[in-house]
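ugh ok fine here u go
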Amino acid sequence: MTRNSTHRIHSEVRFLEGPQSRWKEFRFVLDVMWEFIKGFRILHFVGPCVTIFGSARFDDNNRYYHEARHIGAELAKMGFTILTGGGPGIMEAANRGAKDVGGKSIGCNIVLPHEQKPNPYLDKWVDFKYFFVRKTLLIKYSYAFVICPGGFGTLDEFFEALTLIQTGKISKFPVVIFNDGYHCHIIEHIDKMLEERTISEHDKKMYLITNQVDEAISFIKSRIGNDLGLKIVSKS
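structure:
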């Protein structure tokens, strides 16, 4: 890990510990603004994306890796740019799938204490210091979201996307929860929320739960084409 990246992470930790001097907080706002501008400049022409979320911890021998690679390839064939967090594991698999079929592959990488390097299957990537900036851009350029097996970060991204759709902050983009076996307890919790009326029956229409790549692709294609009116131009 470089000295510069260590300093940047420590400055973020200090900011989150509580009030700082006005100058330090103003400087933080400028830093965040620059992160957004950098992301906008690099990602402006990436085209319509589908973001695939998932763990960095699965290697290429894992079945979840192979499923994500397949999903990335099929979505790229539909003409979508595959957008991920840019790291290893599921992210690498999805980007790799896009490259397998000649599709576009983009990453929004995060700088961490144990530095996460961009995976080798990216046409273009952006490095971010701040999770919330990165997450905003992973959502901003996408017309659908696929939730593959992952940890806290993946769940954070999943519920952020659902919340933005539920509250009308973004369009009703399709969300796929892939692999119901892995996500069974999350699905049970969502059912519990429905039972306790903290969400409505209508909210369940925001997402599809499936183990089948073909079903996931059909759901995304139908929702984007019919509900959002986006013309899909598949690769020959």
